[in-house]
Amino acid sequence: MSSEQWNRREFFAALAGGAAAFSIPSRAFGQNAPAPIKATRLSDRITMMSGDGGNVGVILSDSGLMMIDGGLPERASDMLGAVTGVDAHPVTLLFNTHWHFDHIGCNETLGAKGVKIMAQENVKKRLSVRTTMESMNRTFDPLKPQGLPTQEFSKSGKMTFGKEKIEYVHIPTAHTDGDTYLFFPDANILHTGDLLFNGFYPVIDYSTGGWVGGMARAAEEIARRCDAKTKVIPGHGPLASKDDLKAAGEMLSTVTQRLEKLIKEGKSADEAVAAAPTRDFDDKFGHGAFKPDAWTRIAYTSIVRHSQKS
């Protein structure tokens, strides 16, 4: 077995520990049937799709549908079939919250049909070239041209889709360097992309600008946009609330501070792991794909990489 095949097996085996959170299809583990894709109606015009890679938002209008992210590439037909079950109108806009493979699975299929794909400019940059994600020990080939974003933006902005007003906000360095969250003020619904992993330690892609301190600030910023009634679609995990964002922000901020102190003291990654900086959060967040020691190493490395670029 090649090292590339072994890395892929290890990757999916790691995710198996948090399969419910990551929603990796069961056939990735050699099973016969993929996990079902579930539609949860959040308002008259907004639905959350879960069960296929990252959570997907679907926005209805009289003339077409908007999708926020698109799940895994190998399940594009499953996802689009599930979306058709929500509403028969065609998808006319696909919004990528960031570049990761479990969120851009419908890009090539929809792009080939002429659907507009919208994303922050760093997303197109990453999807256009062969890109390594060290924290997952994986390298991804560029998408075909039809799968690349056709409408880019550099900063935050506002738009309207059908009757829904939308505010989209770019967070420069957090999960990656191209993350965007979307807020629907009239519906009081917010889609975080992978700026929130609800209830477990998050992926931090330090290869493309992500770092744990940026994740902490992102969670705190997004929480300030919410009230007690806001419905929050996380990148992974169940539907969330402002309290979930605050809990994630507190965990991420505390761990960042502890690791920064250890790094300033000259502690190695092994010594940081031995110090157990996540100890009081493991019961709540330590049951996903990343166990505490592995995630501590990722968070530690993300701080080192970020400081080198600052």
Q: What's the layout of helices and strands?
A:
Blueprint: H1 3-16, H2 19-22, E1 38-41, E2 46-50, E3 56-60, E4 65-68, H3 76-86, E5 91-95, H4 107-112, E6 116-120, H5 121-127, E7 131-133, E8 138-140, E9 151-153, E10 157-161, E11 164-171, E12 179-184, E13 189-191, H6 212-224, E14 231-233, H7 242-264, H8 269-274, H9 282-285, H10 292-309
Parallel strand pairs: 4-5, 5-6, 6-9, 13-14
Antiparallel strand pairs: 1-2, 2-3, 3-4, 7-8, 10-11, 11-12, 12-13
Helix pairs in contact: 6-7, 7-10
Briefly summarize what is shown:
This protein is α/β, with parallel strands linked by helices and 310 residues long.
Care to describe what's here?
The protein is globular, with a radius of gyration of 19 Å. Helix content is 34%, strand content 20%. It has a single domain, classed as 4-Layer Sandwich (Metallo-beta-lactamase, Chain A). The N and C termini lie far apart (40 Å). Mean pLDDT is 91; it is low at 1-31. A hairpin with a 5-residue loop joins strand 2 and strand 3 (56-60). The protein has helices at 3-16, 19-22, 76-86, 107-112, 121-127, 212-224, 242-264, 269-274, 282-285, 292-309; strands at residues 38-41, 46-50, 56-60, 65-68, 91-95, 116-120, 131-133, 138-140, 151-153, 157-161, 164-171, 179-184, 189-191, 231-233. The strands form 3 sheets. A 7-stranded mixed sheet has the order 1-2-3-4-5-6-9. Strands 10-11-12-13-14 form a 5-stranded mixed sheet. It is α/β, with parallel strands linked by helices and 310 residues long. The chain contains 10 helices and 14 strands.
